[in-house]
Amino acid sequence: MDLLDTTAAVMTPERVRFRYRLAGPGRRAVAWLIDALLRLIVVVGVMTVVVLLSIIPGVGAVGQGLFLVVLFISEWVYGVFFETVLGGRTPGKLLLSLRVVREDGSPGRFTDYLLRNLVRAVDYLPGFFAIGLTSMLFDRRLRRVGDLVGGTVVVVEERDSVRDRAEIQPPVSEEERVALPARVDLSREELSVIELFLRRRKRLSDDRAEELAWLFGPALSERTGVTAPTWERVLALAYARAVGKDR
Amino acid sequence: MSERDRFVEKGRPRWERLEDLLGQVFLTAKDWSELASLYRGACADLSRARSLSLSDDVHRYLDQLAGRAHNRLYSTRSGSGWSILRMAFVEAPAEIRAQWRFFLLASLLFYGPFFAGAGAALWDVDLAYQILPESQLAQMEAMYDDPDMVRGAGEDASMAGFYIWNNVGIALRCFATGVLGGLGSMFFLVYNGLMIGTVFGYLFSVGNGWNLLAFTAGHSAWELTGIVVSGAAGLKLGFALIVTHGRTRAGSLRRVAPSLARLVLGAAVLLFVAAAIEGFWSASGLWPSIKFAFGVVQIGIVGLWIALVGGRRT
Fold first, then answer.
1. CA distance linking residue A64 with residue A56, whole number of Å
2. Same domain, B134 and B173
3. How open is the CA angle A21-A22-A26, to the nearest 5 degrees?
4. Are residues B102 and B42 in the same domain?
5. Residue B28 sits in the same domain as residue B171
6. Which value does ipTM take for this structure?
7. Distance from CA of residue A129 to its chain's centroid?
8. Higher-confidence residue: B182 or B158?
9. Among A48, A172, A245, B88, which is 20 to 30 Å from A118 by CA?
C-alpha cells in the first residue's frame, strides 16, 4: 500500500491500482458519536421497558439481568456485529461513508473486526480517546491502537461526479477574441489543469477562484501574451484559444 | 469535445448503472454478476484513463467508483455464524494448547498471588486487612454467613446478567490492555488473583469458608480458567509487540492476530458458561455435597475441553 498524503493506493486482483482516502479523527469521531447515540437510545429504551415492567412482581429482577446483558452488548458486541454484517461498517460509518478495510485494501474479516473493537477499550484510556488520538497522530495511516492490532485502516468512500463541464462564462466576446494572440500553445498538463479549474469553477466563490487562478495566471499571461482584467479570465481565454472554443 | 469528454460520454451509462447497483442494499444473483462485470469495466476504464492521462477528476471519480465496487464485491460474509462458533468452541481449546507457554505464565501470575493472598489471610487474619479494606471483608463475611443463600428465580437472572456485564467485561479489558506491553494483563491477573485468594483465606479463617467454596464450586473452573485464558491472550499480544523476530511491530501483531482472536473467543465462552452457572446454579439451595460433586464434574469438562477438543494446531 503506497502512501501519498492521506490517500493510500491499493492493488486489486485485477491488477488495477486505485486510491483510497484515509479517514481522519474528526470524521471518525462523528461516526463514533452517531453510534454512541444509537447505543444510548437502545439502552435507555430497554431501561424504560424494564422499569415499566418491574411493577409486575418477579419480572423486575429478570428485567435487570436483561438490561445488563444489553449494556454488555452495546459496549462489546455492537461494533464487531455491525462491521461483520455490513462489510466493515457500523451505522455511524455508513452515514459518513466510512469503511474498515485491511491494510492491503482487501475486505476485513471477522477476526480483524473483533480485535480492533476489543482494543478500543485501550484507545479510550485514560479518557477522551487519548491513547487512540495520540496513536492516530503519529501513525501515517491514521490508525488507532485497535487498528494496529486488527491490521485495519478506516477509509472514506467518497462519492464523486464527472458531470461538471468545463464552461467559459461569460462566453468569449468579440473584443476579447480580437485581442487574443493568434496562437496559444499549451502543454497537455496545462490544459488539464485549466480544464479542472473551469469544471470546479461553479463550486468556488469568486474570490477563491481568483486566488487559485493567481497561482498560474501571471506566468501564463507573460508567456502567451494573453491579457485580461482578472487572472481567472486569463486562464479561460488562453484555454479557449488553445482548444478553439473562442468561436 | 475534448478527449476527456468523449471518454466520459462513452463510459457514463455503465458507471451510472454501477452507482445504482452500489446504492442498493440487497442484490439478486443477476445483480451480482452484473456488478462484477461493471466493476471489471470500471477497472479497465481506470487503467485507460491513466494511460491517456485524462484530467484528474476522471481519475478521482473512477478511483472511488472502482474502490467502492471492489469493497462491495469482495466483502463476502467472511465470518459466517458457524465459522465463528467453530472458532470459539473448537479452535479455541486447540489454540490454548498451542499457546501453553502463555497459558502457564498467566496461570502463575494469577494463582501465585491467589495462594499468597489465601495463605497470608489464613496465617494471620490481620494480613487480610492489609490487602483488602475491612468493610469489604465484613461484607463478604455477611454474604456467606448463611450456608444456603437461596435467591428467587428472578434474582438469579438478574445476577447472571450482572456476571456477564461485569466479569466478561473485566476479562475483555484484561486482554485489551495487553497491548501496553503486556503490563495491563499482568496487573489484572495479579490483582484479581490476590483479591480472590485473600477473600478465600479470610473467610476460611473466620469460619465461612465452606459456604463460599460450595457457592463457587460449580462455576470456578470456568471462571478462573476464563480469566487466565484472557490474560494469556493479553500477554501474547504484549509479547508480540516486544519480541518481533525481525518484523515490524505491526507485522508482528499481524502474525499473532488470528491466535489472539481464538484465545479471546475461548475466554468469552468460558466466562459466559461461568456466568450462567453462577447465576442459575451456584446460589440454589442444594446440599453442599451435590454442589461439590457438580464442581468436580465441571473441572472435568473444562479440563477435557482444553485437553482434547480441536485436534493439533501448528
1. 13
2. yes
3. 115
4. no
5. no
6. 0.86
7. 21
8. B182
9. A48
Domain-located, residue B313:
no
Question: B130 vs chain A: nearest CA distance in angstroms?
Answer: 28
Q: Distance (Å) from the C-alpha of residue A240 to the closest C-alpha of chain B?
A: 12
**Per-domain residue ranges for chain A?**
2-156, 174-243
Same domain, B194 and B256: yes
CB of A179 within 8 Å of a chain B CB? The answer is: no
Q: B10, B47, B57, B151: best mutation site toward chain A, by most A Cβ within 10 Å? A: B57
For residue A63, list chain B residues with Cβ-Cβ distance below 8 A: 158
Q: Are residues B61 and B21 in the same domain?
A: yes
- How many CB atoms within 10 Å of residue A73? 17
* Residue B172's pLDDT band (cuts 50, 70, 90): very high
Confidence (pTM): 0.81
Question: Is B76 in Cβ contact with A195 (below 8 Å)?
Answer: no
Looking at the structure, do residues B243 and B276 belong to the same domain, yes or no? yes
Task: Return all residues near A245 (Cβ < 8 A) that are at least 6 apart.
Answer: A168, A172, A239
Q: Which of A149, A155, A161, A165 to mutate to test the interface with B (most CBs of B within 10 A)?
A: A149
pLDDT tens, residue by residue, B109-137: 999 999 999 999 999 888 888 888 888 88
Using CA coordinates, name the residue in chain B closest to A149: B253
Contact A14 B84 (CB under 8 A): no
Q: Give strand pairing partners of B65.
A: none
Based on the domain organization, do B69 and B135 belong to the same domain?
A: no
* φ/ψ of residue A171, rounded to 5: -60, 160
Of residues B65, B87, B165, nearest to A72 (C-beta): B165
Same-domain status, B112 and B196 = yes
Q: Which one, of B265, B83, B229, B170, lies nearest residue A114 by Cα?
A: B265
Residues of B within 8 A of A60 (CB-CB) are 154
Which residues does B215 contact at the CB level (< 8 Å), separation at least 6? B144, B149, B282, B283, B291
Strand A2-4 relative to strand A17-22, pairing: unpaired
The CA distance from B171 to the nearest CA of chain A, in Å, is 11
Q: Is A149 on the interface with B (CB under 8 A)?
A: yes
